[in-house]
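A quick aside before the break. I want you to see a complete sequence-to-structure record at least once, exactly as it would be stored in a machine-readable document. Don't worry about memorizing anything.
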Amino acid sequence: MNNTLAIAHKEIKAYFASPIAYIVIGLSALLFGYFFVTLLLNFDRMSLQAGSGFGGPDTVNVNQMLIGPMFSNVAVMLLFMLPLVTMRTYSEEKRSGTIELLLTSPLTDLQIVLGKFLGAFVLYIAMLGVTVVHIGFLFLFGNPEWRPVATGYLGVLLMGGCFLSLGLFVSSLTKNQIVAGMLTFAVFLMFWIVNWIAAFMGPTMQSVLNYMSITEHLNDFTIGVLDTKHIVYYLSFIGFSLFLTVRSVDTERWRG
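That is the input. The structure line, written in tokens, reads:
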């Protein structure tokens, strides 16, 4: 465990010693702030219409009209931001030659992979941390339900874990950071849109494609529903991706 934490600490220092952490956190804060203000203004407009009775909805709900869409927008943000986090994890080690030192050190492949995953996950938590200010603003001046907020954060944390673990695997396949980033985005996008073609398939294939879609499992989290099948999907996704990364690192060790 100490070896894993040491690798994680090294990764966190590497992120913050380079512009990556600051760019990712800064852009995330900027984009989330834009999404939040846009949704808040729309919610305010709908509230005024509901109160006046001129063409507005009968009732307005901050969780349904603001918090749920906000977490959906965060998911879109992850699609573009997380490849920046994972693209350097192994490709930079290969390019600089430090991968040989890492693989010849008294560390197991699993310790290396878990350490790098934890380091990236800590950066991801910091990225989400900037959004707490906006959520706090809602609780300070409004009365949203806490459960959809808690489950929404859990959902995007699990989805982010899936993207990070998959990004680690892709990065372990190449020594070029740009290639790793582009391939990671392409794979992310595939799991994002896989359910789009489900409507053209038979019932069995439709169910399979919908289950494979990484976004389908987030919807219940954003409305406060905690379903174990979604948690199992995300944890299985993370576990399998990390397993593939361990095998890839093991292959690199034998090649060396």
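Two observations worth writing down. Residues 2-255 form one domain. The chain has one domain: 2-255. We'll return to this after the break.
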